[in-house]
C-alpha cells in the first residue's frame, strides 16, 4: 500500500490510480503510475499526487515526488516560498525571521498571515518545500512540492498540515 492510499481514509478522500504507462529504454522496460487522492477542506479542495515508477527505474523509487494542491474557488494574492540558493543565504545576514533565512518569500498580506503562525514556521523549517500559486478559471491553485524524499506517513501528514494552515488562513 502506498502513502497516498494510506492517507486517503484519514482525510475522508477518494483514492484514484491511473493505468500503468510503460516505455522501453536501453535499461529495460520502465513502468510508471500516477496515484492521487481528492478531499474537501474548509470549502476548498485538496489533491495529493504521486508518480510511482517500476522496472528499469528501481533506483528512482525512493525519490517519489509528492505534490499537494489546494484549490480555492476564488482568486487570492499569490503565495510563493522557494528555498534560497547558497549565495542568497550568504548575503542574507541580518535577517531575523528563520523562514526568511531559509526561503525566498514574496511578501504580501497573505504571506504575512502565514509567517505569524508558529506551527507554519516549525513545519516549513522542518522540510525543504516549494510553494507556488497559479490562478486559473477554477480559482486559485496553491501547490506544495516536497523537495526531499518522503518515506513515512507522518511526514506526508505534516506536509498536508502546511496546506491545512494555508487553507485555514483563507476561510
Please tell me about this protein's structure.
- With 171 residues, the chain is of the alpha+beta class.
- The protein has six helices and nine strands.
- It has helices at residues 3-7, 86-90, 98-102, 109-115, 118-126, 153-169, and strands at residues 14-17, 21-25, 28-41, 44-55, 66-72, 81-83, 103-105, 129-136, 139-146.
- Strands 1, 2, 3, 4, 5, 8 and 9 form a seven-stranded antiparallel beta sheet that branches. The chain has a two-stranded antiparallel ribbon with strand order 6-7.
- A hairpin with a 2-residue loop joins strand 2 (21-25) and strand 3.
- The chain is globular and about 50 Å long.
- The mean pLDDT is 84.
Structurally, the number of domains stands at 1
Give the beta-strand count: 9
Q: If you compute it from the alpha carbons, what radius of gyration comes out, rounded to the nearest whole angstrom?
A: 17 Å
Low-pLDDT residue intervals, each spanning 5 or more residues: none
Measured between the Cα atoms of the first and last residue, the distance is: 33 Å
Q: What sequence of helices (H) and strands (E) makes up the elements?
A: HEEEEEEHHEHHEEH
Largest sheet: 7 strands, antiparallel
Helix content: 25-40%
Overall pLDDT confidence? 84
Beta strand %: 35-45%
Q: Report the oligomer.
A: single chain
Structural class: alpha+beta
How many helix segments?
A: 6
- Shape assignment: globular
Amino acid at each position: 500500500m502506498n502513502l497516498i492510499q494510506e492517507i486517503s481514509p484519514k482525510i475522508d478522500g477518494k483514492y484514484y490510480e491511473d493505468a500503468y504507462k510503460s516505455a522501453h529504454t536501453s535499461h529495460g522496460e520502465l513502468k510508471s503510475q500516477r496515484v492521487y487522492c481528492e478531499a474537501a477542506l474548509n470549502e476548498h479542495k485538496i489533491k495529493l499526487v504521486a508518480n510511482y515508477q517500476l522496472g528499469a527505474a528501481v533506483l528512482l523509487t525512493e525519490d517519489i515526488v509528492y505534490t499537494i494542491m489546494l484549490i480555492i474557488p476564488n482568486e487570492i494574492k499569490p503565495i510563493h516560498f522557494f528555498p534560497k540558493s547558497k549565495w542568497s543565504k550568504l548575503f542574507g545576514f541580518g535577517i531575523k525571521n528563520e523562514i526568511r533565512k531559509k526561503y525566498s518569500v514574496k511578501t504580501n498580506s497573505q504571506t504575512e498571515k502565514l509567517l505569524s503562525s508558529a506551527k507554519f514556521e516549525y513545519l516549513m523549517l522542518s522540510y525543504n518545500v516549494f510553494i507556488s500559486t497559479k490562478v486559473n478559471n477554477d480559482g486559485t491553485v496553491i501547490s506544495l512540492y516536497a523537495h526531499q524524499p518522503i518515506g513515512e506517513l507522518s511526514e506526508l501528514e505534516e506536509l498536508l498540515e502546511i496546506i491545512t494552515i494555508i487553507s485555514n488562513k483563507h476561510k
